[in-house]
Amino acid sequence: MNSNKNTITQGADWTVVWLYAILVTLGIVCIFMVEYRPVSGSDWWQTFIPGKTNYSKQFYFALLCTLIATFILLADSKLFTAFANLLYAFGIVLMLATFVIGKNVNGSKSWIPIAGGFNLQPAELCKIFTALALAKFLSRQQTDFTKFRSQLIGAVIALSPAILSVLQNETGLALVYLSFFIVMYREGLPPILLIIGFSFGVLVVATLLVEPNKLAIALTAIAALTIYFLKRQIKRQKRLLTLIVFAWVVCVGVQRFAVPYIFNHVFQCYQSTRIYSMVGKDYDCSLNHHNSKISLKPSKKPDDYNVRQSMIAIGSGRLTGSGFMKGTQTRGRYVPEQHTDFIFTSIGEAFGFAGCIAFLGVYLFLLFRIIRIAERQRSTFSRVYAYSVASIMFFHIAVNVCMTIGLFPIIGIPLPLISYGGSSLLTFTILIFIMIRLDADRQMVLR
Amino acid sequence: MPVSNQSRSTFIKIIFASVFIIIALQLVNLQVFSSKYKRAAESNAIFRKIVYPDRGIIFDRKSRSLLQNTIMFDLMVTPSESKGTDTLALCNLLGIDTIEYRKRMHDVIIKNTSVRPSVFEALLSPELYARLNENMYKFPGFLINDRSARSYPYNTAAQVLGYISEVDTAFLRRHKEEGYEMGDYAGQNGLERTYEKVLMGQRGIKMYIRDNKSRIQGAYENGMFDTAAIAGRNLYTSMDVEVQQLAEKLLQNKIGSAVAINPKTGGIIAMVSSPGYNPNVLTGSARKKNFARMNVDTAGPMYNRAIKGMYPPGSTFKPLGGLIALDEGVITPKYGYPCFGVYNACGDGKPKCLHSGNGHADNLRLALANSCNSYFSNVFRMAIDNPKYKNAEQGYIKWKEYMNSFGFGVKLDVDLPSENKGSIPAVAGYNKDFGGAGRWNSCSIHTLGIGQDRMTATPLQMANVMCIIANKGYYYTPHFVDSIENELTEDSVYLGKYRRKHEVLHISDTAFEAVHDGMHDVTIYGTAAGIKVPGTDFCAKTGTAQNPHGKEHSIFVCFAPKNDPKIAVAVVVENAGYGATWAGPIAAFMMEKYLNDTIAKDRLEEVERISKADLIPAAIKQWYASKDSARLAKIPAINNTEFENNIEAPKVTFDPETESHKKAPEKNDTGKQKAALINPEEKKTRKGQR
To answer: If we measure between CA atoms, which residue out of B119, B123, B127, B166 comes closest to residue B143?
Structure first.
């Protein structure tokens, strides 16, 4: 027993453990704030016991997670490197299995029912497996990540579960896998890819905002100006001109054909509507390819009820918030899905701007701490894995918070460790504690 | 391990930090700089419930309440919760069909969303309330809401008290800063309107928190921002319910008006306009129907003739004519005029005089008692042609000044809305009529001297003149409200104008005494010799006013007792003939009731006779008849439906409104042929002219 305890504590990064504990507790408090309604004749703590309310369920999930975390800390870190590929394969199989035995929840067939009324979402767990597999691949002796072939394999490992997620109608979860590009960037992916990706994003938003012909003219003007200013270099290097013309053709192509195609053929009607509503426009669902039924009535108003209520709740908190359990919007249940995806609104309303900044500060501190841990690793496997953890969490936090404050379209992804949900809490617990375990053994791997 | 990539760690940190900074900036925008989200949150979640205070009560001079507050019930519905309602049963109870049910539901949802309670059926009758209450369990989403309403235990003084009704958008626009909201009730006429601010009290506001389905969750901030409702304050008036009721009874089946004032204070004792209506008909569930019906009624039951009806005063003007002449010094009380039945001095043989015996106008006293037209025409001309003034025009201007001082041709400023000022023609009018200044003289307008020509006055003005004469030269502005409960400074300022004595022209007491004597003689041997008030000497003047609408108006003005006047009365009965025949007895009974507190037993029969006498002009009866026959043709089943009313009122002793309505069709069955010749349109123009 004594020796066991030593094994757990030895080398473990207690800062991260404490931050983890603080966030999980805060999560339960937030869900409590959203769900709890005083019942005469019983104290507030009594409602935790029966496990009927969401906050008490989350409490029990947290207990379970503590148990699992302990097991992980007790496990041998070699286990994770050894089983990385196998687990990845298992995850892919599970995701494929959802197509057969999956349960339809809210229009997406991504859940596998397991005993006791609980459902498992393989796409969630697959994040861990992908992180491990990517780490395994990049840490191989023979992998040279400067080569295009290795980069391609890395991308395939990261994006395979994402593609399966899209097929399951879980676009939000699929997007999370894009965060692995941050990891790959750290490991040597050329920055031009990130720049291209970012430019593509800007172009898409511009396509939504600006009328197509005007945008085409603007792009042509930019190309012309670039050629004009770079004419000396172009004289020296003819290839540059070809490159600029190619970029111009691609941009106009994306703007004229690719974006409309994606919105009308790839995305579902509601997804297109949400993205359009974020930039303040209405999307005409009759253009949507998926919209097989010809509905004669056009969509009445932009699908922005959720985000409007969410912004109202956060905005009503003002500087210091309305106080714990005093938020009128939270008490009145104005924000839909407030205990899961919109949990940030309860913090925003109850604790105001000051509370939000403090809360985001805790997150940022955790992320920086993880990057610090990553950078002190001597094995590539541990470093890549830690970066994966940081990237996944960052992506979740950024997208979730941005969507509650109207900076990003509504995508159903949870706020790590805070949002209600067993799968999500379990995934992040495992992600973080494997990292702590690996970090604890950082000296050992070299030895 | 490629060491070069380690610098990318810093770049990743920068990306993380910059995204967090963008988030923080948006949070600053949302939470610190824009207050619209706070307001949106409040309008989302805070429900302001208005707590209505009890309206003030209006009491008569003996502290009997002319009106009271009672509770009425509205059937409310929250459409989103009404699934599973036994629609058919509800429709049967309410007496509507399912189409109507769906229509109302539709309207309610459009007006007030489907999640908030709205009025489905307003002002339930007591039986309906009882039946609904038993069956409410069948109607989820429906509830019964109580609301304060008025009831009138004496069924009297409807036009004086006015009514309250839901405010409309025009009202809200006029009273923007006063905190009224859609659905509020406010006084719309009569005292209810004049004293709205006093009677209304102060509304309280309770703030509740509601959820996304508009369900109340509890008090907002433990009621910290709630304000308590302050009850409306009571009004204490000078009215006397019994005199009022008696006057209404006497005037039923007639068109006319009566006003009684206490000359010592200016307090109005009774004010009747006939036809009237039972004030309770405007409170119950049939309010709208009754209102619409009365609104088009050609006899104008909601029209207060006492302050709006403009009648030529006729001979009742003569005491004033005498007073002016005495004060101007053109005559003395001993002045006499030889009248042989017609006034010939102007050469037109007008006016005729009712007495032809020589000597009936040998002095002012006799002339008043006998109401000599020639005498007063002449006296009027003497006043106009007074050598003191350059010409007839100047004389007339002086005369008009006298009239305005007596309250004719000006608004008296009684505490009721929309008072008329009557008419004393302006010089300009005559200049126009006769083709220019100086082209008319005293002869052109001498019928003013007997209260005709274009002189008109409201019954209230006539009664007020009686007060001035009774008081020998002063009056208080006629008013109803003597005092307000817990009177504030601003109330005292308002009521101050009713507590200020107006001295008129400082006419000598001897002049007044001469007129008093003449008016007393009217009741001894003059035109009103047959009219008595047991145990009291009183002064009076009859009037039989010619008018362009038909038979003469019967007018009577008087005050009593002669030596210590306590009541001044003016009565007008339209198109009823001699002043002493109808108006006189009505005024006498009012004085008797007020002074003796009761009517002598042997005179009760006379009260009944007068109250039963039907003097409604044929044209109006014809209007009712055509209206009723049209109604009968449409809905034969409810041919005898009268005003519906759901208030458990004290037993109605009499009700001039319904009585006259009942009478009209019966009597007209025989008289229809003749009456049909008179065009109902003519009646309408009459009303307009008045």
So the answer is: B119
Phi, then psi, of B180 in degrees rounded to 5:
-80, 150
CA–CA distance, B592 with B519 (Å, rounded to integer): 18
pTM for the model stands at 0.62
Q: CB of B6 within 8 Å of any CB in chain A?
A: yes
* Interface contact A401, partner B, CB < 8 A: yes
- The pLDDT mean for chain B works out to 82
Minimal-distance CA residue of chain B relative to A325:
B221
Percentage above 70 pLDDT, chain B: 89
Count of A-B CB contacts under 8 Å? 123
B378 touches B343 (CB < 8 A): yes
* C-alpha distances in Å from residue B546, one per residue of B79, B92, B606: 62, 57, 27
Measure in Å the smallest separation between the Cα of A4 and chain B Cα atoms. 34
Where do we find the tokens 């003016």? B570
Q: Kindly report the nearest CA distance between residue A377 and chain B, in angstroms.
A: 12
Single-letter residue type at A215: L
What's the domain range around A135?
75-182
Are A130 and A427 in contact by the 8 Å Cβ rule? The answer is no
pLDDT digits (tens, 9 = 90+) for B590-627: 999 999 988 888 888 888 998 888 888 888 888 888 88
Helices A343-376 and A422-440, axial angle in degrees (round to 10):
20
3-class DSSP string for A20-44: HHHHHHHHHHHHHHHHCCCCCCCCH
Contacts of A329 in chain B (CB under 8 A): 41, 44-45
CB distance B16–A311 less than 8 Å? Answer: no
Q: Does A188 touch chain B (CB under 8 A)?
A: yes
Cβ atoms of A108 and A170 within 8 Å: the answer is yes
CA dihedral A201, A203, A209, A212 (to 10 degrees): -150
The identity of residue B362, as a single letter, is D
d(CA A323, CA B66): 53
Does A156 reside within a domain? yes
The whole-angstrom separation of Cα B652 and Cα B561 is 32
Residues A390 and A374 sit within 8 Å (Cβ to Cβ): yes
Q: Residue A132: inside a domain, yes or no?
A: yes
Is there a domain that residue A61 lies in?
Answer: no
Query: Does the structure show a pLDDT above 60 at B352?
Result: yes
A348–B27: do the CB atoms touch at under 8 Å?
yes
* A381 in any annotated domain: no
Top mean pLDDT of A61-70, A321-330, B572-581, B671-680 is at A61-70
**Which residues are paired to B149 by β-bridges?**
B70
Structure tokens of A133?
């597999």
Residue B291: name the closest of B616, B629, B645 by CA: B645
Quote the ipTM score.
0.88
Q: Chain B within 8 Å of A406 (Cβ-Cβ)?
A: yes
Judge: A371–B17 Cβ closer than 8 Å, yes or no: no
- Give me the helix-helix angle, B241-251 and B656-675, nearest 10°: 10
Total domains, chain A: 1
